[in-house]
Amino acid sequence: MLPEKLSSLPLEQQVGQFLFIGLPGTELDAETRDLVTEIQPGGIIIFGRNVASPEQLRRLLDGVRELVHTPPLFGIDQEGGLVDRLRRIFTPMPAARTIRQHGDLAAARTLGRITGEVLRMLGFNINFAPVMSIMTEDRDLLSNGLYSRSFGRSPGEVLGYTTVYMRGLQGAGCLGCLKHFPGIGAGEVDSHEEMPVVQLSHDDLIAQDLAPYIELFQRRDDRVRCVMVSHGGFPNIDIREEVTGGLLEPASLNYNIVTKLLRQELGYNHLAVTDDLEMGAIARHYEIGDAVVRAALAGEDMFLICATPEKIRRGHDALLEAAQRGRLPEDRRQQSLQRIARTKAIVEEPLPLDLDQFTALSEEIAKLNSKLNYVYGGTVK
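-> structure tokens emitted (381 positions)
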């Protein structure tokens, strides 16, 4: 996908490239067809509500491909543990915490490899994993939903497990996405409900939660091609009193976090995506159109709107209006279109859906679970 190809699209379709959207159900029905055809999204994200069988899911993604003028990114949150969108059709995958507790780096790589191959057979090209939060014993006591989703209690542990997991995942041809920048492990609430406030200073963030990101960004292999920015508030880094909803602007909509910290200070120049803009941390304080425009001005490239077709349309319309009226300058749009195009240029084509191999990989996960003494007890999200 050449950058000039996206840049030459009509403005309405350029705006669609910024959106990473969810679909209503399991089939490409009239509602879904109309949504995809109208928005022409740059990305599709799949949830448990979209999954009924391997054949159905691959058919759904292939059907979307036929409706869009430019091939989209197809993403999913397939972490394992509590966040496992495929558990209806595939053996539940172990949580990151379980692998870390067993001190099994090889298991992390195996999980990444199997995840990558399974996702490519189903039609995906990007996995919104791994979680980079550092979950110390004190942070384990917080109600932020990250207890079992992290690979480590220290920057070194998170870096080590993340590195081998990403080697497995991306070695199988599926991009990973580090999340949730710049780190919300110290937040006391779940951003699905409200904004988690992280009281760390800039220097403490650099030394702790950002340390694994910094190390991965500096590696010459250019392994990290996607980062998801959180909805966390960071009062010791940035306070903007004019912001609707209080003193704090969430990181995902914050120029000082996305552009100044992530891009300028840490030197990251690949794809940056928001967490879901329908989550409580955003929805309680911002109308969806306002949130999308703020995210674009902050320096984000793609914006996840994961559930509601009406909100997806409103987000698209607000972004289009901002572009038409000059609030979203052309050079800002072109920067993101180039990063989106570069990402699309490196994603792999889907693998054939081989049900025998799919079953074999499912059995391999079952053996890994047995080795780790892992018993899954979560609920579908």
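The chain is about 45% helix and 10% strand.
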